[in-house]
Amino acid sequence: MVGVGPGIGLAVAKRFVREGMSAGLIARSEATVKAAAEELVGADVLPVTADVTDEVGLRSALDRIVGAHGVPEVVVYNAALIQSDRIGDLTAQQHRDAWAVNVGGAMTTAAHLAPAMAERGSGSFLITGGMPQPKPDYASLSLGKAGVRTLVTLLHQQYGADGVHAASVTVSGGVGAGTGWEPDEIANHYWRLHQQVPADWIQEIVI
């Protein structure tokens, strides 16, 4: 789980651990990842700190998890930079910084793990999507989530025939209790995608 902060990340980790799976947890903040691990007490969990925009650091964190748990059966990329901005509000560098979190870290994670999953012949690579329609008040996030959707398609084209199921869960609104986007309910969709057999694979669930 890359991006295991409170909300979707923790709920998904809990959902998979409940099925008896071990978990590697990655977050930028040591406090965040330790808090998540404490919520999963009793499970086989490895918390690791890494910034998804730091390619060397992220790959090192992924290697630690693979070393402890082996090539993962499922990878969930949940990191995102959620901010309100319109075209013209951000500098080009600020857009690159947002893209590095929203898409670049997912690409690094996939490049590092998907080949080994394909060699084994199975696995799920799931990304938290959003913004099913672009919104002018969320320009950088709209661009990033469009990139996520394209990345899922590219991963399917490259690794699908080798047994890797690439998909996204596109969340259409703000996550929280009483919002219609409850973290625990959202987490069930990740498990549903992971359980699909190849004949039933879909690349996106929009909720």
Account of the protein in words:
With 207 residues, the protein is α/β, with parallel strands linked by helices. It has one domain: NAD(P)-binding Rossmann-like Domain (Rossmann fold). 48% of the residues lie in helices and 16% in strands. It contains 6 helices and 6 strands; from the N terminus they run αβαβαβαβαβαβ. The protein has a 4-stranded parallel sheet with strand order 3-4-5-6, with helices on both faces. The protein has a two-stranded parallel ribbon with strand order 1-2. Helix 4 links the parallel strand 3 (74-77) and strand 4 (123-130). Helix 4 (92-120) runs parallel beside helix 5 (139-159). It is globular and about 45 Å long. The two termini are 20 Å apart.
Low-confidence stretches: none
Query: What is the number of independent domains?
Result: 1
Compute the gyration radius: what is it? 16 Å
The CATH topology is Rossmann fold
CATH superfamily: NAD(P)-binding Rossmann-like Domain
The amount of beta strand, in percent, is 15-25%
Reported CATH architecture? 3-Layer(aba) Sandwich
Helix content percent band = 40-55%
Question: Which H/E pattern describes the elements?
Answer: HEHEHEHEHEHE
| Helical run tally | 6
Q: Care to count the β-strands?
A: 6
Which structural class best describes the helix and strand composition?
alpha/beta
Strand order of the largest sheet: 3-4-5-6
Q: How does the major sheet shape up? A: 4 strands, parallel
> How far do the termini sit from each other?
20 Å
Mean pLDDT: 95
* Shape type: globular
CATH class: Alpha Beta
